[in-house]
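Propose amino acids for all 110 sites.
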């Protein structure tokens, strides 16, 4: 992802750095805990992993490349992207709720 960011206009992806900072252990641990402690979030996460496996059966991986039964979260930017692509993914939507700004304040072609 960082390679992509360096190849495009910096202002085009103002939200990406904010999401990318969520991959640190200090960000992933609270999300992992929340998913483990909340039946609603755990169900949402399991459904998202199942959907990802249906979309890409050749990989047999969940959101962010998660293997079945791995536990914990990694690649929160992948969960954020999945939530944008599949509205209703509660855990991903909560991750997106932490990102400010979510969208650039100007068009990339300006």
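Proposal:
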């Amino acid at each position: 992802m960082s390679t992509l960011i360096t190849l495009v206009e910096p202002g085009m992806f103002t939200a990406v750095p904010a999401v990318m900072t969520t991959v640190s252990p200090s960000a992933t641990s609270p999300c992992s805990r929340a998913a483990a402690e909340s039946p609603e979030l755990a169900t949402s996460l399991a459904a998202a992993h199942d959907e990802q496996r249906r979309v890409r059966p050749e990989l047999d991986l969940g959101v962010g490349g998660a293997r079945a039964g791995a536990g914990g979260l990694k690649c929160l930017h992948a969960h954020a992207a999945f939530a944008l692509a599949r509205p209703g993914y509660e855990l991903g939507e909560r991750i997106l709720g932490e990102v400010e700004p979510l969208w650039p304040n100007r068009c990339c072609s300006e």
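The chain has a mean pLDDT of 76. The longest helix spans residues 39-55.
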